[in-house]
Structure to design on (234 residues):
């Protein structure tokens, strides 16, 4: 499940660019976020949830494996609404016990290795889990005036990434029971409210999300380095 109804309010000098449709070495950010899942043997299908009237994916169906790809225009006002609408669109195609992986539309550097790592780390754990990175910088807590209040112990702090993996029934129940969709910043925060304890699976710092314009340059550099390594290995 790839929620792609965001407007990219922090992206671009004008704050109105749709970041998932930006070009990244000849492909859109969204296409690069989708491809690893379409190509993965353990993924049975990919659902992309767009906002109504989004025309940025007109060529997407032509350039990707259509047999596994489903695009629906059911985007909500928030990420949580968009994911919930996407789950509901599945109807009886996906059972309650089946796993759903939710991935950011603007996280184009996920790899098959990371997807494997998540699936293997969570498949036998009923509460699901997510990719994440341990924080390495010193963490400061501030007040409303940006003055330091305290230094936080980082030993047990992680930065959440995607994909995040949960059984359909649990994820749907968690999102349906949300009183305030704005407070649900990722799927894990929703299921945690059910008393579940998702497992953190060590990820890679290269699996970052495109948030600002400068992130595109950083992503391009990672892709170029990967391409160079492939050539060098031949």
């Amino acid at each position: 499940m790839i929620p792609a109804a965001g407007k990219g309010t922090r992206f671009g000098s004008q704050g109105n660019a749709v970041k998932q449709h930006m070009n990244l070495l000849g492909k859109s950010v969204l296409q690069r976020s989708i491809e690893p899942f379409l190509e993965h043997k353990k993924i049975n299908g990919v659902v992309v949830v767009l906002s109504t009237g989004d025309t940025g994916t007109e060529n997407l169906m032509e350039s990707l494996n259509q047999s596994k790809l489903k695009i629906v225009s059911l985007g909500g006002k928030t990420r949580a609404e968009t994911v919930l609408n996407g789950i509901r669109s599945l109807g009886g195609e996906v059972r309650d016990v089946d796993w759903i992986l939710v991935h950011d539309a603007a996280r184009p550097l996920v790899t098959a290795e990371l997807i494997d790592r998540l699936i293997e780390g969570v498949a036998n754990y009923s509460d699901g889990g997510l990719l994440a990175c341990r924080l390495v910088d010193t963490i400061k807590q501030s007040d409303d005036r940006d003055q330091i209040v305290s230094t936080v112990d980082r030993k047990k702090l992680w930065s959440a990434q995607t994909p995040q993996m949960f059984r359909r029934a649990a994820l749907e129940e968690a999102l349906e029971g949300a009183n305030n969709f704005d407070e649900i910043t990722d799927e894990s925060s929703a299921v945690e409210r059910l008393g579940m304890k998702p497992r953190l699976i060590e990820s890679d710092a290269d699996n970052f999300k495109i948030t600002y314009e400068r992130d595109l340059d950083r992503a391009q550099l990672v892709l170029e380095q990967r391409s160079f390594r492939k050539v060098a290995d031949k």
About this structure: Residues 42 and 116 are 9 Å apart (CA to CA).
